[in-house]
Amino acid sequence: MDIRPVFNTIGVLVIILGLLMLVPMSVSFCFHQNDVWSFFVAAAISVGLGILIKTASNTTKTPGVKESFAIVTLGWIIAAAVGALPFVIYKACPTYHDAFFEAMSGLTTTGATVIENVDAQPNGILLWRSLLHWLGGMGIIVLFIAVLPGAGSGGSRLFKAEVPGPLPERIVPRIKESAKTLWLIYVGFTVAEIILLCMAGMNLFDSVNHAFATMATGGFSTKAASIGAWANPGLYWIITVFMFLAGINFTLYFQASSGRKLKVFFQDSELKLYFSIILVAITLITANLYLSVSFQSFREALRHSCFQVVSVITTTGFSTVDFNMWPPFSKAILIILMLIGGCAGSTAGAIKVSRILALLKHGYKESFRFIYPRAVTLPKINGSPVSRDTLNTITAFFFLYLIVFAGGSLIMTGFGLDLVSACSAVAATLGNVGPGLMAVGPAVTYHPIPAFGKWVLSACMLLGRLELFTVLVLFIPDFWRKG
């Protein structure tokens, strides 16, 4: 493997991140807040470091398969390392490991925070957290492919490494145009939500931050109480709808806008299962909350149930109430939703509905073979058979996901966390959800977690966002051999 194209690309990414720091710096300058110099220093360090990396590794060589995996994994790690600078320079986070955790949580759209006094933070810091969400939601490498001239050469390999999925679909033949289309759809939804939130009574600054976090399915809020800080049912419903939309495969939006109209949504098997899971979860939790007298009215129980179910399955992590206080049955459903996640091709995390669908159909077909051993039993999704190679990849992913979940949970119990807190912390970070239960519930932060525990959870966030294989392939010895 040639390391030069890897660091050449990463150098450009670091420069871009440094320049983007000027956006929250400008906001803080306009509001006359004291974090302006923190962003200026962080931007100067980032741009200088990026230029140094790019100059030292200057090359015109196109990244190959190995280089693409290295660019994506190392790119996200270095992006988090650089993105942490404003937090630690301003002292919004007391230590660098806290700042790295916060930045990684932002970029991977996890939404787990270590900042205990969110309400007291200046606007620049709050906007930087949300901007990291928004950049990470669609993918920093996808943005790189979309905006930089010449990035299309080798861009297909980069695109596939950052946007892995069980059933990948190409929007248009040219990968650069695909990246641009994805970002245009993403920006369009974000602008629409900002306008609606403003119309519903949220100020412009909060609307921008929450639209960034919603469309990225991230969950960082400008308030410690999250969306619950606004006693406004209208806002709850707007955010619920956009979280639901962000959890749908973005390929469907492109297909709907290019002549196939709304029928693509009714024909998609994954979307049907996604909607069905949400509907069943809302029904069960609403009944559980209402019958256990958690809420005084059925309408209130339904509203909070809808919001939290959609928030958790899309791995957004917003909250309107402290669901840590809900009955055990409702909390058990939320944990299951944390593991399932949204649709493939969406900004949501976790296992993804398409993999669950493929595994369910594969399990049924394998059971069918016991009756008819000679039958051809390849499962079909949207009318197309799923190949044996794809099924093997999905099965391996599911197995590795459970292994990482179990291993991470065991490690976290070693730091003194109770079993529910440890398991939910790993499920919430590996699935890029954010808040968990008990010690890491929506009403508290991850600040009390020991330093090494935060590094473990940061690794879980990265593994979850890049869907395991992109990261784990770097640990295969043959990966680093030449040739």
Count up the helices. Answer: 22
Derived from helix and strand composition plus strand pairing, the structural class reads mainly alpha
Helix fraction? 55-70%
How many strands, what sense, and barrel or not for the largest sheet?
2 strands, antiparallel
Unreliable sequence segments: none
C-alpha termini separation:
7 Å
Compute the number of strand runs.
2
C-alpha geometry: globular
Arrangement of strands in the largest sheet: 1-2
Strand percentage lies at: under 5%
Average of the residue pLDDT scores: 88
Write the layout of secondary structure elements.
Layout: H1 4-20, H2 22-30, H3 36-56, H4 65-83, H5 85-90, H6 96-107, H7 123-138, H8 140-147, H9 155-162, H10 175-199, H11 204-215, H12 233-246, H13 250-260, H14 263-267, H15 269-291, H16 298-313, H17 328-340, H18 353-371, E1 380-381, E2 384-385, H19 388-413, H20 419-430, H21 451-465, H22 469-472
Antiparallel strand pairs: 1-2
Helix pairs in contact: 1-3, 1-4, 2-3, 2-7, 4-6, 4-9, 6-7, 6-21, 7-11, 8-10, 10-11, 10-12, 10-13, 11-12, 12-16, 15-16, 15-17, 16-17, 18-19, 19-20, 19-21, 20-21
